[in-house]
Amino acid sequence: MWWPGLRSRRGEGDEIHVTASSPVGYRLRFRLHDLVETPRDRVTLRSDGDLSGTATMAFAPVDAGHSTIDVTWDVEATPRWMHATERLLRPVFVLAHDAVMRRGERALNAWLTSSAARASRRRRRR
What we know:
Layout: E1 6-10, E2 16-21, E3 27-38, E4 42-49, E5 51-63, E6 66-77, H1 80-125
Antiparallel strand pairs: 1-2, 2-3, 3-4, 4-5, 5-6
């Protein structure tokens, strides 16, 4: 997987099992399922396990060859230990989340850049 710290594997049907490793040592395991695609502009799905809720990804064209993706997660972390320690560890959870998101953003940008570069080279060779 292109996102550092995330591992995924296919389940049955549209299920994807994900393990997200935080930079401070804990892991969250969750299942993505009930994928619904709206042609050309939206994908929604459900999550259960250590992250329970829904996600929506909305796609919008910006100009020729460019789009935006707006990702909205409405999830709750469900591990009991996280709820029991939330008052004390919330700043750590926030920092860990931010670090995981930054790593994912950097990796996605690198992947998109390299994919675009490969596509450009293929077009030039034709």
